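Anyone have tokens for DUF1508 domain-containing protein? Sequence:
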Amino acid sequence: MAGSFELFRDGGISFRFRLKGPDGTVVAVSGPFSDKVSAVEGIDAVRECAGTGLITDLCPPMSHEAMAFDPASSTRAA
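Reply: yep, here.
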């Protein structure tokens, strides 16, 4: 099952949408749109671009030791 989009009013002022995963988890929330048509166009843009979007890593570099740490097991990877 695919995710879904929910279109809603933000406090009665702006239109926004949220992208929900198949399990109902909110994956993303849009910025405000002044009208419903613009919000739907925003959904269309996300649908078109999301699968092909590049990733830009803006995180600071991590040390090799920090990358080898496995928080799930609280041990360092071999």
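Residues 36-49 form the longest helix (14 residues).
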